[in-house]
Specification:
This protein is an all-alpha fold and 216 residues long. The protein has helices spanning 2-59, 69-87, 96-118, 123-148, 155-184, 187-203; strands spanning 62-64, 67-68. It folds into two domains: 1-59; 62-203, Four Helix Bundle (Hemerythrin (Met), subunit A) (Up-down Bundle), CATH 1.20.120. Helix content is 80%, strand content 2%. It has a two-stranded antiparallel sheet. The chain starts with a helix and ends in a 13-residue tail after the last helix.
């Protein structure tokens, strides 16, 4: 009986010793792990501060006459959003040719954007053209969607839709000219083409005479 009690006491002592040793070990390990995690958090925070500082400095960098990198980035982000908003009406254009023209115009927009991003000295002039192009496209597509939704198509509506399709062709052809002008760096003719495009679309009743602002 005494042997049994002595065995239990010995086991209890051994267990107690092991428990104390484990507590001391894991307590030290806990503080090591906590310290390591705190160090990681500090390093990440410092890295983010440095990154944000560099990004801010980069955005404020002048890349053209009176134009910062941030302005350029914001412009193309906004312009891309406008294009995507127009394309959400893609299947509402119940005409295969008009949808095809919308695809082509979108492609031309991307090409012009790529050229301008590669040489930002043309940014101001190209921005004027892209503003005219996008505002005209928005108007034509919006009006066309409304006309397609009319149950009974009168002759007047059919004529308006035909003009809208022709307007999209004009936009695409004009964009092709602008791509050539940008490759040639012929900015004077690019400015002239902007006015010609606006007047042509306005004369067909596709946009208002004052549409196509120079700034976004």
């Amino acid at each position: 009986m005494n042997d049994s009690r002595q065995g239990c006491s010995a086991a209890s002592i051994v267990f107690l010793i092991i428990a104390v040793a484990a507590f001391i070990l894991f307590r030290k390990l806990f503080w090591w792990v906590l310290g390591f995690l705190i160090l990681i958090v500090i390093l990440i925070s410092v890295s983010l501060l440095v990154y944000n500082s560099r990004q801010k400095k980069k955005r404020n960098e002048m890349v053209a006459d009176g134009i910062t990198a941030g302005e350029v980035a914001d412009y193309f982000k906004n312009a891309d959003q406008r294009v995507q908003a127009v394309r959400r009406n893609y299947f509402k254009l119940k005409d295969d040719k008009m949808r095809a023209e919308l695809d082509l115009i979108t492609d031309r927009f991307k090409k012009i954007s790529e050229i301008v991003k590669g040489d930002l000295t043309d940014f101001k002039q190209a921005r004027r053209y892209l503003n005219t192009m996008l505002s005209s496209l928005e108007t034509i597509v919006d009006q066309s969607v409304k006309l397609f939704n009319v149950p009974e198509k009168s002759e007047e509506i059919s004529t308006s839709l035909k003009k809208a399709a022709e307007g999209m062709i004009l936009l695409r052809q004009s964009a092709d000219k602008q791509i050539d002008k940008l490759h040639e760096n012929n900015l004077l003719e690019l400015d002239v083409e902007i006015e010609v495009l606006k007047k042509t679309l306005a004369s067909r009743g596709l946009i208002e005479p004052e549409e196509g602002n120079n700034e976004l």
